[in-house]
Amino acid sequence: MNKYRRDIILVIKDDAVYPDSIDTQVECLNYVIACVDNKEGFCRAHELVNRNCITSNKNKILAAVQKNA
User: Fold this and answer.
1) Residues 1, 23 within the same domain
2) Domain identity same for 2 and 27
3) Residue 36 near residue 42 (C-beta atoms within 8 A)
4) Which three-class secondary structure state does DSSP give residue 69?
5) Exposed site from 3, 41, 46, 57, fewest CB < 10 Å?
6) pLDDT at position 59, please?
7) Domain span at residue 25?
8) Which residues of the chain are under the pLDDT cut of 50?
9) How far apart are CA 65 and CA 69, in angstroms?
10) Which tens digit of pLDDT belongs to each residue from 34-53?
């Protein structure tokens, strides 16, 4: 049973692909995605450029994202 709630397309160039290696890669990708899948992680991973200043202020970043959505 799939314990993740997101769709991931994994493109692999190797000819010899083992199901265990695919599962490992998907688990690693889910871990990376989960790190920025919430507001705190999103704000840590992004900065806001506003004219001549760059800010990491969480409230300003979230306000800018909500305004453009």
Assistant:
1) yes
2) yes
3) yes
4) coil
5) 3
6) 93
7) 1-35
8) 1
9) 6
10) 877 888 888 888 899 988 89
